[in-house]
Amino acid sequence: MFLPLAADPFTAPTDRDMLPSERREFVRTHRTCVFGYRRRNDGPGMSIVYYIPTDDDELLVSTMAGRGKARVIERDGKISLCVLDERWPFSYVQVYTDATLDRDRDVAVDVMMAVAGRMSGQPLGQEARASVEAMCERESRVVIRCRPYATFATPPRHLHRNDQVRQPSHWVSGVVPWDADDPS
């Protein structure tokens, strides 16, 4: 089941690293990310996409079968999603995932319906389903199923005054398993 768009996305703390549970909540309550994957040549491929979180912790991304995002999954199922906070000051959580391709047309339509709702901020009515089905067929839409296994987070940092540059403002974060417990 898809998680609904959060009315109030999780706000990252600015004075400490995010706890593992907060990283998961951040990912579940936001909607855009940079989709990154290894390319055979050159640097990593990256594009900004909407994603749909599910209640079993999958992150679903819609794309066209002929695009690089879909083609790479068949040769390399390791991808990264850099989940973005759309509010200033920006924060992000990078999610490392194992990805698979789902060619089921009904799933592709369901995901595109959900993506439209995330884009507009309102769920798309069932009266639009036939149009979305036609678009998915015309564009050969598929779904990339991303299973998170680890995260990396950086807190939002912003200078509100120039004299803040003399104060320490960053600390070291690290990669944390997706299902890690919060420290006691």
UniProtKB/TrEMBL annotation:
This is Pyridoxamine 5'-phosphate oxidase N-terminal domain-containing protein. Gene3D superfamilies: Electron Transport, Fmn-binding Protein, Chain A. Residues 20-117 form the Pyridoxamine 5'-phosphate oxidase N-terminal domain. It comes from Mycobacterium simulans.
